Amino acid sequence: MKAGMIIPAFMVRGNILLLFQEECPMFDLSKFSLKGKVAVVTGGSRGIGKAIAQGLAKAGARVAVTSRKIDDLNAVAAEIKSFGGEAVPIQSHLGKIEEIQKMVEAVMNKFGRIDILVNNAGASPAMASVLDAEERLWETIMNLNLKGVYFTSQAAARIMKKQGKGKIINIASIDGFKPEQGVSVYSISKAGVRMITHAFASELAQFNIQVNTIAPGAVDTKMMNSHWFHLSPEEAKKAKDLTGKLIPAGRIGDPDDIAGAAVYLASDASDYTTGAEIVIDGGVLLASMLKAEEG
Ligand SMILES: NC(=O)c1ccc[n+]([C@@H]2O[C@H](COP(=O)([O-])OP(=O)(O)OC[C@H]3O[C@@H](n4cnc5c(N)ncnc54)[C@H](OP(=O)(O)O)[C@@H]3O)[C@@H](O)[C@H]2O)c1
Asked: Of 134, 149, 192, 169, which Cα lies nearest the Cα of 274?
C-alpha cells in the first residue's frame, strides 16, 4: 500500500456496520525541519563540527558554535549568515568545567533555550604507545573527550528537562569500538563517550530527551591529517591515499558525510531513537568484523 492512499475501512458499533474511508497516514517530511530550534555545536570552528553546524543551520536551527579560537568561530558564523542562517560564536575551553557553565549561560542569554547539543569537540593531540603515554596526554584527552562531554551534556540536559524535550548527539569514533594502535588513550575516551550516550539515554528518556552517538571513521580534517605530522608531505600524501584505498567505500570521508545523520538525530524525525549508534565509516568496522569471523 502506498503512503497517502485512501483506503476503505470497516468498524462495528453495536449491530451497525460503519463503512468509511480512511487516509493512510503519510510520513511528514517537515519532521526533519529544525525551524525554531536552538543548537549548540561544540568544536564548530572546523572539520566535522563546522559541517554539522552548517547542516543544522540549513535545516533551520539557530546555532551556537563553540571552540577555543574566536577568529575561526567568527568565520564559521559569517559563512552560516551568508546563506541566510543564524549563528553565534562562543569562545570556550570545554576541558574546564567553569568554562562549560559560562558557555551554556552565554547560549541561554542569547537564545533563551537549548534544543539540540552536539558534543563534537574532541582532541587526539599525540600518538603514543600504551607503554609511553604520559599523564599529561591522558588528562588533555580525558578532560575534553570525556569530562567535557559529560558536564556539557549535564548542563544542557537540565535545561532540556525544563523545556520538556531535547536532543543530545555525541561524536564518538570507530576507535571506541576497536582500539587504534598508537592512539589508545583516544580510543579509550571514545569508548567512554559511547557509554555516556547509553547512561544519559537511559536516564533521560523519561524526560523526552533523546541521546545518540555518531561514530565516524576516517574523515578528512585537521585531526585526521595530524596522524601523519611526523612524515614528509610526500610520505603523508602516500599514507593518506593508502588509507583511502583500504576503506571498503574506496575513499576517506568528507565532513559533510557526517552532517546528514546529525540533522536526523537533531530533528523530530528521531523522537523514538535513543541510545543508538550510527557508524559512518565507509564500511571499515563491518569489514573488520567480517575478517575476524573468517579468522
Ligand atoms: N576526523 C576524523 O577522522 C574523526 C574520526 C572519528 C571521530 N572524530 C571525532 O570527530 C570530532 C571532530 O573531529 P575533527 O576531525 O573535526 O577535528 P578537528 O578538525 O581537530 O576539530 C576539532 C574541533 O574541536 C575544537 N576543540 C579542540 N579542543 C578544544 C577544547 N579544549 N575546547 C573546545 N573546543 C576544542 C577545535 O577548535 P579549537 O582548536 O579552536 O579549540 C575544533 O573546532 C572529534 O570528537 C573527533 O574525535 C573524528
From this structure: 169
Q: Is 21 left (phi over 0), alpha (psi -120 to 50) or beta?
A: beta
- Mean pLDDT, the chain, whole residue set: 93
CB 213 near ligand 1, within 6 Å: no
Task: Report pTM.
Answer: 0.92
CA–CA distance, 27 with 53 (Å, rounded to integer): 26
Q: Which residue has the cell 535513543?
A: 274
Question: How buried is residue 155: exposed, middle or buried, by Cβ count under 10 Å (0-12/13-18/19+)?
Answer: buried
Query: Considering only the top CATH level, what class is 38-294?
Result: alpha beta
Enumerate the domain spans of the chain: 38-294
pLDDT in tens, 30-70: 999 999 999 999 999 999 999 999 999 999 999 999 999 99
Cα separation, 114 vs 164, in Å, equals 11
**How far is the centre of ligand 1, averaged over its atoms, from the C-alpha of 47 (Å)?**
7
List helix spans (H) across 209-255.
222-225, 233-246
